[in-house]
Amino acid sequence: MPIPIIIDTDPGMDDALAILLALRSPEVDLRGLTIVAGNVDANQGAINARKILQAAGRCDIPVAVGANQPLLRSLGEGWPGHGADGLGGFGHELPACDRAFDPRGAVRFLIETILASPQPVTLAPIAPLTNIALALAAEPAIARNIKEMVIMGGAVFCPGNSSPTAEFNIWIDPEAARMVFAAGVPIRLVGLDVTMKTILRPPHADRIAAGRGAGPALAARVAHAVMPYALARFGESRMHLHDPLAVGAVIDPTLVRTQKLFVDVETAGFSAGQTVADARNVWKRQPNVDVCVEVDGERFVELFVQRLSADG
C-alpha cells in the first residue's frame, strides 16, 4: 500500500523537484501540499505549487496556504538562486492549475487530514517548520497518527548554509523547529550532512530533459537554472538535491543511514538555528531524532533521474 504523505513546502526550485519526484513515485500517495513562507512568501509559494502540479498533470492534489511568517521573527531572505518568484524568474511563463486553494488553510488541513486518515500519515516538511509547529500546538492529538516526519533541515555535523552553523529551513524559524523536535513524533532529519552529497550534474539534467511531458521539462529547466550558482561557489556546474532527498528517504529508507541522537535547536544569538546534537550523551536525554549521517548519493541520484525522465 502506498505511504500517505503530506509535503509541507515553500516552493522553491528544489521543492519543485521534490514534489515532482513524489508524484512520479508509486511508493507514496501524496495527500496534499501545505505551503509556508521560506524561499518565498506563502502566497507566492502557493501559486508556484499550482504551477508545479499543472506540469505534473495532478491538479487533483489540494494546496493549502499556511503561515506567511515565522512564529516570533521576521522572514529572512531566501537564496537568490530561487529567483524573485521562487521558480528561477521563469514562473510567469508556466500555466497553473485553476483549482482553488483549500479553504481550510494549511494548519486545519494538516489536522483534519491526519486525524481522518485510517493509515498513519508521513509528513515530509521540506521548508521552515512553522505550519507543523502550529498544527501540533493547536491539536496535539495528531501526533498519534503521524507515522514519522522526514524533515529536510539541519546541519548537525557540518557547516550551515544560512549562517556558519545553521541550515536555511531551521534558521528561518528556529522556535518552530525547537517545538517540533520536542513534540515526541518520530523524526528523521535529512540535513546538509547528507544532502550535500547528492549531486545532480549537467548530464543528469540532460537525461531528464529527454523525457516527454511538462514535468520532465520543468525539472530539467530548474536544474539547468540552478547550476550556474554552484559553478560560481564550488567551481562545478551542479545542483544539490536537498529537498528531493527527503522524499527519496520516504520512498526508500535504505538510501540513508541514521544515528539516534538527542537534538535541540539554538534560538538566540550568533548560532540561532543551529541543530545541536548530543553525540556523547552528555545531557543524558532520550534520543528524539534519527539523524541521517550517510547517504548512497549515487544510487539516489540515479533513482531521481530515472523517475523524473520517465514518460508521463
Explained architecture:
With 312 residues, the chain is of the alpha/beta class. The strands form 3 sheets. It has an 8-stranded mixed beta sheet, sandwiched between helices. Strand 2, helix 2 and strand 3 form a beta-alpha-beta unit. The model has no long low-confidence stretch (mean pLDDT 96).
Number of helices: 11
Helix percentage: 25-40%
Span between N and C termini?
22 Å
CATH architectural arrangement: Alpha-Beta Complex
Lay out the secondary structure.
Elements: E1 3-9, H1 13-23, E2 28-35, H2 42-56, E3 63-65, H3 105-116, E4 121-125, H4 130-138, E5 146-152, H5 168-172, H6 174-181, E6 187-190, H7 192-195, E7 199-200, H8 202-209, H9 214-234, E8 239-240, H10 242-251, E9 256-261, E10 263-265, E11 275-277, E12 289-295, H11 297-309
Parallel strand pairs: 1-2, 1-4, 2-3, 4-5, 5-6, 6-12
Antiparallel strand pairs: 7-8, 9-12, 10-11
Helix pairs in contact: 1-2, 1-9, 1-10, 2-9, 3-4, 4-6, 8-9, 8-11
Question: Which descriptors would you attach to this protein?
Answer:
single chain; 312 residues; alpha/beta; Inosine-uridine Nucleoside N-ribohydrolase, Chain A; eight-stranded mixed sheet; two-stranded antiparallel sheet; 11 helices; globular
Write a short abstract of this structure:
It contains eleven helices and twelve strands. It is of the alpha/beta class and 312 residues long.
